[in-house]
Write a structure and sequence with these properties.
Layout (H helix, E strand, L loop, with lengths): L1 H11 L15 E12 L3 E12 L2 H21 L7 E10 L10 E11 L5 H10 L3 E9 L3 H26 L4 E9 L3 E5 L12 E2 L6 H5 L4 E13 L1
Antiparallel strand pairs: 1-9, 2-4, 2-5, 3-4, 5-8, 6-9, 7-9
Length: about 240
């Protein structure tokens, strides 16, 4: 192991003339490291599309407006603020593949319900899954302590980077010097406890088709990872 580390260190301490620009002119070691933590989410969101189709576009629009009114009533019933309902991108399109002489119009609207109290998650999400004209569901979870989590992860990732760099320096028989550069990556959520994956805190999971309710009713733990790249001077 130390032999491999020494080889890695030797690459890092080559003279500048032997390395591709732009590398530091002093001996250095570059390491990648990360830190991870599990967190139980306390906030979430469900995204979906409201879609109605009719030969009369006004009737299709009325159906979409009716669904929005029903969603608002559901949220009020569950004590969820109507400010946490977002509807956007209302658009009308001709359905593709239908005869020109018998057009069908589709009216769509994207919607999101932000849930600041996950104790109400099931009571809100289950009825939404059963409503007609709603599809393309996707859910996402986050933590309201995100800033604190990111700070802890960064501290731990930097500590791991120094540990790795010290092993390399020891293998190369050099002394580890000061940090000369740090490049942090974005905090990633590398997976759910149930085995599903997503790329970041709020990236949703979902399906273009209507899914089974059980897929969306579970509240899943987050595994968050903070990667860093660090350059240390070697003395």
């Amino acid at each position: 192991m130390l032999k491999q580390l020494a080889i890695a260190a030797a690459i890092a301490v080559l003279p500048l003339a032997a390395q591709a620009s732009p590398l530091p002119s002093y001996p250095f070691v570059h390491v990648s490291a990360d830190a991870s933590v599990y967190r139980v989410p306390d906030i979430g969101a469900i995204d979906f599309e409201i879609l109605a189709a009719d030969a009369d576009p006004e009737l299709a629009r009325a159906t979409v407006e009716t669904r929005i009114a029903e969603i608002r009533a559901l949220l009020e019933q569950q004590g969820v603020s109507l400010d946490d309902l977002e509807t956007r991108d209302v658009r009308k399109e001709l359905r593709k593949g239908v005869p020109v002489e018998a057009p069908v119009y589709e009216v769509r609207s994207s919607a999101r319900v932000n849930m600041r109290d996950l104790s109400k998650w099931r009571a809100v999400v289950a009825p939404l899954l059963g409503m007609p004209n709603l599809n393309s569901f996707a859910t996402s979870f986050d933590t309201s302590e995100r800033d604190q989590v990111e700070a802890e992860l960064m501290t731990n990732a930097l500590r791991d980077a120094r540990r790795r760099a010290e092993l390399i320096a020891k293998g190369a028989r050099r002394k580890l010097g000061a940090v000369t550069a740090v490049t942090p990556g974005g905090v990633k959520n590398v997976g759910y406890t149930m085995g599903l994956l997503r790329a970041d805190f709020m990236e949703p999971r979902g399906s273009a088709a209507r899914a089974e309710a059980s897929e969306f009713l579970a509240i899943e733990a987050l595994k968050l990872v903070q990667p860093v790249d660090v350059v240390f001077k070697l003395e």
